[in-house]
Specification:
single chain; 190 residues; mainly alpha; 59% helix; elongated
Length: 190
């Protein structure tokens, strides 16, 4: 009987923790905590970066500011963050992409590809802004071409990338543009 009671209590704690994680994002946004804190709290509560960003924007956080905070917390997931924020706030696509490009270590091609894929009507503005932000035109154009090709972007959201890979501009184990393993065209990291 004690084992059953303990099991039921544990189940209630776990169930309450999951629903509390959803409520905490909206509560943290409403409490005007920094978006970095909101995203960090959500990740610590077990949400994915996509869930955390979605809930923060739905709770009233600015998509551009949310993208900046989320990319600062998890730069390796910039493509997912840019894509999610752009889908939730497409009028701010360029701001969202620039927020990602402003974070050290972000793969520019992945962020550009994600922005174009999520909001193709903003392609020209994305291209202009990325080049103005210092991303080489060859990297920008290759990322746009990958996003707009009939096959769409490669799995993982990056041109030439594998799931979780970095695609164009990789400095590691992915091929990038015109290269072999470990060789591609280097993308500037901001």
């Amino acid at each position: 009987m004690r084992v059953l009671l303990c099991g039921m209590i544990c189940l209630m704690i776990v169930a309450t923790g999951v629903s509390a994680a959803r409520a905490d994002v909206a509560g943290d946004v409403a409490a005007h905590l920094s978006l970095t804190t909101v995203i960090t709290n959500a990740l610590n509560a077990g949400l994915t970066i996509q869930q955390a960003v979605t809930q923060a924007v739905q709770a009233g956080a600015d998509p551009c500011a949310c993208a900046a905070a989320a990319v600062a917390v998890s730069p390796a997931q910039a493509a997912i963050i840019v894509s999610t924020c752009t889908r939730l706030g497409s009028s701010e696509t360029v701001c969202i992409m620039n927020a990602a490009l402003g974070v050290q270590g972000v793969n520019a091609a992945s962020a550009i590809t994600a922005a174009v894929t999520a909001n193709p009507s903003a392609t020209t503005a994305i291209q202009t802004a990325a080049i103005a932000d210092g991303v080489p035109a060859t990297v920008v154009n290759a990322a746009i071409a990958a996003a707009t090709s009939p096959a769409g972007p490669a799995p993982g959201g990056a041109p030439g990338g594998a799931p979780g890979g970095t695609g164009i501009g990789s400095t590691g184990g992915s091929s990038g543009v015109g290269g072999s393993s470990g060789g591609g065209t280097a993308s500037p990291s901001k």
